[in-house]
Amino acid sequence: RLFPAHTPTVTFDDVAGVEEAKQELYEVVEFLKSREKFQKLGARIPKGLLLIGPPGTGKTLLARAIAGEAGVPFFSISGSEFVEMFVGVGASRVRDLFDQAKRNTPCIIFIDEIDAVGRHRGAGLGGGHDEREQTLNQILTEMDGFDTNTSVIVLAATNRPDILDPALLRPGRFDRRVILDRPDISGRIAILKVHSNGKPLAESVNLEILARQTAGFSGADLANLVNEAAILAARRGKTTIEMQEFAESIDRVIAGPERK
Predict the structure, then answer these.
(1) Which UniProt keywords apply (predicted)?
(2) pTM, two decimal places
């Protein structure tokens, strides 16, 4: 089975509010762009990085941005896709994915929701357990099989690092962790700027005030907020998006659409 590879057009400029994570991940971009520099000095770049954070904090976007910055192919799959009815399918799918990646180096493999297959062994209930274990074992086997010159970097995302199998976190596997948290106020201002770029905002719109009113919002929530405000303004026949639309959209994002 073929996995579509594409080189994303997203770059770090499109990912706001996670500056520390971007700095850590820039090393990976450097390695993918000029790996000889690292190899000459015998530096071992991590094979696997775990992106940890609550839903909506930009784990997938950041993974795509690394590939976009480095200009390399990006293969992605979700852990929940692996857990199929037929025993053995997950493991063979992992093999196919890694084989294809090795033919397209340098590149990135991104496994979203790795906790779907990578949870602590022995914590499963029912028949899906063996299948998950086989899939996890195959991922570990593939990563252990990389030699030092294999320029495939495996990124995995989870919001539940506490339930992951310790075998995944050993040196040479996902031994580097990057934490993404919900953005602070300056992060929220930066994210709101990215998403309102190109949209006609009224003079009255103050992104700093909006950032203060959206404590606890994730990056995805803020993207949703700007979009909701644009929809409201369009429905009202306005030519610009005003503070009123943003204020109502904050409530919509928190509570869902108003029930009549």
Answers:
(1) ATP-binding, Hydrolase, Membrane, Metal-binding, Metalloprotease, Nucleotide-binding, Protease, Transmembrane, Transmembrane helix, Zinc
(2) 0.81
